[in-house]
């Protein structure tokens, strides 16, 4: 009798598990279209070609790339009157002491400290002076339009060594490349972060030696 | 984490040792039966449905429902029914309005260090409070028609913690008291239904009802729950706690066995599900319960629920450039389909009481209808948990029942599970029943996050709780 009872319990448990397996959850497909699941953050993120749109992700039209919540022309291009992306002459051109920027608008050669080479851009006083993917580096003595290349790019290797991340956004965390080492202030507008991000103290997170990082505004509520 | 398991095992061993010695001491006593199952609450209502309602307070009502009064007409009843225009068909039914309920007064004290992040989840200061105050109204409308209403009186929303960490007082100037400030609270409609016996084995319920699953969802009164509170898998509502719609149920005797069944049709889950369905899909559910006389009494149950959650803004008026008219547009909002399953087991043998529940739920969002979560969205996921409780009711010391309770709960996946993906907890305690309508509880518990990550790490939340719960 005990064997029969045990068998009955096993059958019930088996039926339960079977029914459970027939549910809605598919471990290999936890996110929607144009999304990737991020194991570290335990959330679904839009893939590298898509932006958030309502409760899903929408693929950017051909020739555009995601920047924040918008699909924009790639760096070095801008939208013409017909809504098409066209190359912005002079912007992003390589420059150095021997080859200065010759464009009338993008006449400033922005170099990183100790670098001999830079890229052509322009001076600014506020973000609106810059092209869409650029941020006015108003924390500098001589503000200019700065491109944070690779911010938010999808990455898979948490830490500073992911090959998808760049010098500008070197740290891979929760599936995205982050700008690190920024200076936390009260006003994110003047922080040394991309314009759609805020500098946060991330010392309590598991980001190794990183203590501050530029965090998307939608994710930075209440951060210090 | 080994430390926690060691503590748990030590406490378990000590408790079992106490149980064993008490059991040995009680061997000369007559066989002890669980008072909750053997004694009718003094305040239980007499009518059959009212008895069913009382089962929420004390399982004793299950045993008395079959013999509940249906044959005591009174002058007063006739007058009441005549006023309702029902006197012609209810001459032999006790139609008196039954008012009863339960309440509980509790005390909690966190014993672990104040600095623990874990303390965020509970008020760490030792606190006295009224944790339950539920009031029932039940009435036989005729021999086959009945109604029942249960309301919970609550302090909420007073004391709500806001996202910025402030605690919101809900106060208003009480003009009935010369404009003095008074705290105000709320009333939850736990259930309100009318039911009709289609057949001795088939009853149809219409209204708001508690979802029939497991052991402690319908039987949810503080006096009936052996530990201080119900398990995580119930309070986290892997099944919706209650639904609005239809509920067909019955119990079919099969010799020494009883087969019980439930089938439900409702609005499904949503923030307004008790009074508004935000889409056209209806939720369905079912439960089978098999009661046996094996080794005292054993009861097996299995439950299922399938539905669609919807949370959306109200419809909008949007110009349609093609028709040059205004269209009514329904926002997608957040929508997911869910399937919940549960199994439960209850064994009572003399004073021994063992029960366990396993509850799971999985869900998948509809396209473009995911819940936002930080810089992304919540994934499809599942939650799974269960508990086991064992205790022994002695016929001494106010019918004391020492018990050990263990539970584990794996949360559904979202950004918060990066640091808090599951919860484990054990409790050891004493449950007294000095009289059938009063229950006293004293228990110690430890909770921790398996594989805890910063900032929770390996923190352990130690709590001491006490409660006096009573039926009235």
Keywords:
heterodimer; A: two-stranded antiparallel sheet; 1 helix; globular; B: 472 residues; mainly beta; Porin; 11% helix; disordered N terminus
Describe the protein's architecture and organization.
The complex is a heterodimer of chains A (224) and B (472). Chain A is mainly β and 224 residues long. Among the domains of chain A are: 82-147, no CATH class; 151-224, no CATH class. Chain A is built from 1 helix and 17 strands. In chain A, the strands form 8 sheets. A 3-stranded antiparallel beta sheet of chain A has the order 9-11-10, with no helix packed on it. A two-stranded antiparallel ribbon of chain A has the order 1-2. Chain A has a two-stranded antiparallel sheet with strand order 3-4. In chain A, strand 3 and strand 4 (56-59) form a beta hairpin. The radius of gyration of chain A is 23 Å and the shape is globular. The mean pLDDT of chain A is 84. By secondary structure, chain B is mainly beta. Chain B has a single domain (36-380), classed as Porin, CATH 2.40.160. Chain B has a 16-stranded antiparallel beta barrel with strand order 1-2-3-8-9-10-11-12-13-16-17-20-21-22-23-24. In chain B, strand 12 and strand 13 form a beta hairpin. Chain B is globular and about 80 Å long. The model of chain B is unreliable at 1-90 (pLDDT under 50).
Q: CA-to-CA gap between the ends of chain B?
A: 44 Å
Instruction: Please report the total strand number of chain A as a whole number.
Output: 17
Strand content of chain B: over 45%
Structural class of chain B: mainly beta
Radius of gyration of chain A over all CA atoms, rounded: 23 Å
Q: Per DSSP, what share of the residues of chain A sits in E-state strands of 2 or more residues?
A: 25-35%
Please state the average pLDDT score of chain B: 83
- The stretches of 5 or more residues of chain A where confidence is low (pLDDT under 50) are none
Count of strand segments of chain B: 24
Distance between the termini of chain A: 65 Å
* Chain pair sharing the greatest interface: A-B, 43 and 49 residues
Profile the largest sheet of chain A: 3 strands, antiparallel
Structurally, how many domains make up the residues of chain B? Answer: 1
Alpha carbon gyration radius of chain B: 24 Å
Overall outline of chain B: globular
């Amino acid at each position: 009798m005990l064997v029969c009872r045990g068998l009955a319990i096993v059958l019930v448990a088996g039926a339960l598990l079977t029914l459970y397996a027939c549910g809605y959850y598919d471990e290999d497909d936890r996110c929607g279209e144009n999304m990737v699941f991020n194991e570290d953050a335990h959330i679904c993120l839009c893939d590298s070609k898509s932006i958030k749109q309502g409760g899903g992700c929408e693929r950017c039209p051909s020739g555009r790339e995601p920047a924040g919540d918008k699909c924009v022309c790639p760096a070095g291009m801008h939208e013409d009157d017909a809504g098409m992306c066209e190359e912005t002459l002079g912007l992003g051109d390589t420059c150095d002491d021997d080859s200065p920027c010759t464009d009338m608008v993008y006449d400033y050669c922005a170099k990183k400290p100790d670098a001999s080479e830079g890229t052509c851009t322009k001076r600014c006083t506020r973000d609106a002076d810059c092209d869409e993917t650029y941020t006015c580096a108003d924390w500098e003595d001589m503000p200019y339009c700065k491109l944070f290349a690779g911010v938010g790019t999808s990455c898979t290797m948490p830490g500073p060594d992911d090959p998808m991340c760049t010098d500008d956004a070197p740290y891979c965390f929760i599936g995205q490349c982050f700008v690190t080492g920024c200076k936390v202030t009260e006003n994110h507008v003047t922080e040394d972060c991309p314009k759609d991000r805020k500098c946060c103290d991330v010392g309590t997170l598991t980001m190794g030696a990183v203590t501050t990082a530029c965090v998307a505004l939608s994710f930075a509520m209440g951060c210090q | 984490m080994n430390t926690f398991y060691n503590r748990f095992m030590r406490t378990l061993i000590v408790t079992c040792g106490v149980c064993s010695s008490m059991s040995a001491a009680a061997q000369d006593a007559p066989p002890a039966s669980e008072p909750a199952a053997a004694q009718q609450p003094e305040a239980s209502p007499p009518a059959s449905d009212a008895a069913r309602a009382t089962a929420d307070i004390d399982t004793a009502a299950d045993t008395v429902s079959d013999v509940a009064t249906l044959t005591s007409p009174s002058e007063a009843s006739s007058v009441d029914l005549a006023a309702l225009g029902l006197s012609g068909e209810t001459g032999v039914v006790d139609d008196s309005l039954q008012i009863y309920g339960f309440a509980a007064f509790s005390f909690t004290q966190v014993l672990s260090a104040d600095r623990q992040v874990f303390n965020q989840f509970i008020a760490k200061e030792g606190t006295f409070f009224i944790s339950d105050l539920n009031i029932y109204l039940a009435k036989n409308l005729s021999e086959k028609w009945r109604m029942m209403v249960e309301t919970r009186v609550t302090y909420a929303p007073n004391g709500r913690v806001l996202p910025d960490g402030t605690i919101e007082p809900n106060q208003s100037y009480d003009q009935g008291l010369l404009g003095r400030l008074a705290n105000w609270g709320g009333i939850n409609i736990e259930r309100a239904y009318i039911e009709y016996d289609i057949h001795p084995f088939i009853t149809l319920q219409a209204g708001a009802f508690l979802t029939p699953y497991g052991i402690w969802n319908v039987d949810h009164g503080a006096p009936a729950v052996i530990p201080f509170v119900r398990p995580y898998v119930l309070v986290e509502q892997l099944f919706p706690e209650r639904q609005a719609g239809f509920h067909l149920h019955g119990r079919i005797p099969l010799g020494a066995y009883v087969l019980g069944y439930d089938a439900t049709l409702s609005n499904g889950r949503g923030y307004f599900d008790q009074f508004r369905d935000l889409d056209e899909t209806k939720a369905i559910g079912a439960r089978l319960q098999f009661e046996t006389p094996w080794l005292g009494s054993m009861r097996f149950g299995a439950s299922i629920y399938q539905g669609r959650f919807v949370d959306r803004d109200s419809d909008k008026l949007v110009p349609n450039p093609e028709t040059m008219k205004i269209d009514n547009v329904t926002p997608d909002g957040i929508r997911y389909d869910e399937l919940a399953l549960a199994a439960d087991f209850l064994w009572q043998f003399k004073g021994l009481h063992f029960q366990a529940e396993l509850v799971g739920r999985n869900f998948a969002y509809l396209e473009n209808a995911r819940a936002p979560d930080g810089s992304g969205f919540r994934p499809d996921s599942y939650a799974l948990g269960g508990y086991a409780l064992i205790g022994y009711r002695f016929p001494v010391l106010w019918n004391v029942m020492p018990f050990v309770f263990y539970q584990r709960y794996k949360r559904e996946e979202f950004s918060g599970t990066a640091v808090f993906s599951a919860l484990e907890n054990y409790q050891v305690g004493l449950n007294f029943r000095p009289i059938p309508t009063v229950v006293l509880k004293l228990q110690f518990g430890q909770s921790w996050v398996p594989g805890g990550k910063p900032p929770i790490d390996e923190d352990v939340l130690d709590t001491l709780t006490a409660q006096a719960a009573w039926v009235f």
